[in-house]
Design goal:
By secondary structure, this protein is α+β, with helices and mostly antiparallel strands. The chain contains 12 helices and 17 strands.
């Protein structure tokens, strides 16, 4: 567990004294213990919290999606401003929270930076802090307000249950997130990994995929070991994904140039050991008529033994019967297990292929904090909307209707948009 860090930020700072309750000694009453002071600092300069960020990021419980690599790539790629909140109690750093504010229906909603593309959020939270450090919603609201966070509501979404039980989130109202996430525990012996998910059937399917690819020239499992290869794989993904999304009646969330720049920055961002923040993998045809064609792509991130699949795509115009996506997952999971990783996370979203690979399902939580009168009015409506989406996605019949209606909207939007080369 990490201890608390002494801090002396130079950015905008405001101190909020939590209730210091003491009885009048003239009446002989006992003196209640003083609650720790809650202090919030806000900066729009990511470097201002760099020292605390670097320390808290070493906590194995902190998600990759609050790492400096992720947030810096998001801010640099999209150009969206990020408000970094440093939260202290009696001069000890409790948390660093990188937030972005987006207007939705006239409501200013603060959320974790880049959460639209994240799979789990924890914030950067110290592993151990002051006794009695649970922060009440009014204390947190006052601290954020005095620090200058200009939001109607703060929504800490996609939080694993254990993260939502820690300060400063523990006392916040919450609702189950609309989508669960799925995980596969890893072991050094890959056969033990497969034994969790009907290993005999999985190995048979793998051999069948290999035979079908051998018939058209064989294949290679390739990785983005340098920037050129990483960008080749990323660009292939960005070409393949739109058709798959359209077939599912979903909008192309990767069309925004800022999002593409964000992914490119992640793919070309490397640590001191030369490992990329976003690790690209692909299945490439090794010979024959389609030699050099990449027919499946996936992007992974790694942190403290936790491997997360951030996205994936397939090209069904070449060897569609070879199940190239399944083959790629098999190879990536096998490699992660041999490397000593502990978990392969398939991320948020309930899909059949995730259920087939994963014996573990995690129900995520959305914690929220109304900041203004408008936020207090909107909070129950937002929570109800999240719950309604969860109900719809849990019902095959309702999910089918919603998917059909969504596909009509996506099609009309595409037809209304001007065509471009």
């Amino acid at each position: 567990m990490l201890g608390c860090v002494n801090t002396n930020p130079t950015s905008i700072a405001t101190m909020v004294n939590a209730h210091d309750i003491s009885a009048n000694p003239l009446f002989g009453a006992a003196v209640a213990p003083r609650r720790p002071r809650v202090t919030a600092y806000l900066s729009t300069d990511l470097a201002a919290a760099d020292r605390n960020w670097a320390h808290l990021e070493q906590n194995p419980d902190v998600s990759f999606h609050q790492s400096r690599a992720w947030v810096s790539a998001w801010a640099g790629g999209t150009g969206r401003p990020v408000s970094v909140i440093t939260l202290d109690q009696d001069g000890h750093t409790l948390a660093v929270l990188p937030l972005e504010i987006k207007r939705t229906g006239g409501l200013r909603i603060a959320r974790f930076a880049g959460t639209a593309f994240s799979n789990a959020n924890t914030g950067l939270v110290s592993g151990a802090c002051l006794p009695g450090s649970a922060i009440t919603p009014p204390e947190l609201r006052e601290a954020f307000t005095r620090a200058g966070l200009n939001a109607d509501i703060v929504l800490f979404d996609k939080m694993p249950p254990e993260a939502a039980t820690r300060a400063p989130f523990a006392l916040l109202p919450r609702v189950l997130h609309q989508n669960p996430s799925f995980q596969l525990p890893l072991f050094e012996n890959f056969q033990d990994v497969l034994a969790q998910i009907n290993g005999k059937r999985r190995r048979k399917k793998f051999r069948l995929s290999e035979r079908r690819l051998e018939a058209i020239g064989g294949y290679r499992h390739i990785t983005g070991d340098d920037d050129e290869q990483a960008m080749r794989l990323l660009e292939t993904f960005l070409k393949q994904k739109p058709s798959r999304l359209a077939a599912q009646g979903l909008p192309n969330v990767f069309a925004d140039p800022g999002v593409r720049s964000f992914l490119a920055r992640l793919a070309m961002s490397r640590n001191a050991a030369g490992d990329p923040a976003l690790e690209l993998h692909g299945i490439e045809i090794a010979g024959g008529e389609h030699e050099g064609a990449i027919i499946a792509v996936a992007g992974l991130t790694r942190k403290h033994g936790h491997v997360t699949c951030q996205f994936g795509s397939i090209d069904e115009t070449v060897a569609a019967d070879a199940s190239a996506g399944e083959l790629l997952f098999y190879r990536m999971i096998e490699r992660a297990a041999k490397a000593g990783e502990e978990v392969f996370d398939f991320g948020v979203g309930d899909q059949l292929y995730k259920r087939s690979w994963c014996p573990v399902r995690t129900d995520l939580l959305d914690c929220y904090l109304p900041m203004t009168f408008k936020g207090r009015i909107a909070a129950p409506l937002i929570a109800a909307a999240i719950s309604a989406k969860r109900v719809i996605k849990s019902s095959p019949a309702l999910k089918g209707v919603a998917s059909f209606l969504r596909s009509l909207t996506v099609r009309e939007s595409a037809e209304a948009s001007p065509q471009s080369d």
